[in-house]
Write a structure and sequence with these properties.
It is built from 6 helices and 7 strands, in the order αααααβββββββα. By secondary structure, the chain is α+β, with helices and mostly antiparallel strands. The protein has 2 domains: 114 residues, no CATH class; 100 residues, no CATH class. Keywords: Membrane, Transmembrane, Transmembrane helix.
Length: 230
């Protein structure tokens, strides 16, 4: 009869194998693409060279996330197979633990996939000045409004913006993401009221004007500290 220690060992081994599979499979795909004759991969190279950042993000996530799902399903199947050696009551308890563990594993492994495939935000000083950021007071509390951008594409569109609110101790209190198109005649600069920051998201064609309550709420503070929820 296997022990709890054996079960934990299986979990750790499965985690290591899942991580290795997630890394090795794309690497193998790239190696295969390099090894194939040029006439078979030249069009793919041109596509990857010309692909816009949004499509590139979708391509990376569309590659890695399904691979992660396959690895996790296989992981669960292996743990279920191993669990048959336990008594029914123990098997049921370990199944719940396994499912909870796999949900957490999916979340943890998704963080680098989402973050590394997302926009790279830079030139915060320039964007903050251009979009009317800087120091602002709300309820006698001073906040620093920081804006950073990924840079527009060759047409002047699809500039991904990250808006972050810092308190007087330079701790992040809230984060928002939106998109600006510099090739159209539209509002871009932040506007302020007594209790709101107004920003314009060009990705939302129906309602570009968005608002953020100030000072930031406790939920804003919490979301800004949890990966994938900010």
């Amino acid at each position: 009869m296997p022990t709890a220690r054996t079960y934990v060992t299986k979990l750790l081994l499965g985690t290591a194998l899942t991580s290795a599979f997630l890394i090795a499979t794309p690497a193998l795909m790239i190696t295969l693409a390099i090894a194939l004759p040029a006439w078979m991969t030249s069009s793919l190279g041109v596509y990857l060279w010309r692909i816009d950042p949004d499509a590139q993000t979708e391509l990376i996530r569309g590659t890695f996330l399904p691979i992660l799902m396959v690895a996790v399903i296989f992981f669960f199947w292996r743990m279920e197979k191993f669990g048959k050696e336990f008594s029914p009551s123990t098997r049921k308890r370990y199944r719940r633990i396994t499912i909870t563990f796999l949900i957490l594993l999916c979340y943890v492994l998704s963080i680098p996939i989402i973050n590394l495939s997302g926009p790279s935000y830079k030139n915060c000083a320039g964007y903050s000045e251009k979009l009317n950021g800087g120091l602002r007071k709300f309820d006698d509390q001073t906040y620093r409004i920081e804006l950073c951008g990924s840079g527009p594409d060759e047409t002047g569109a699809n500039d991904h913006i990250r808006l972050r609110i810092f308190d007087d101790e330079d701790a992040v209190q809230a984060t928002r993401y939106f998109r600006l198109d510099w090739d159209v005649n539209a509002e871009r600069k932040l506007e302020y009221s007594d209790q709101h920051i107004i920003y314009f998201d060009h990705a939302d064609q129906n309602d570009q004007m968005q608002t953020m309550s100030m000072p930031p709420s406790s939920l804003d503070w919490l979301r800004s500290r949890i990966p994938l929820l900010d």
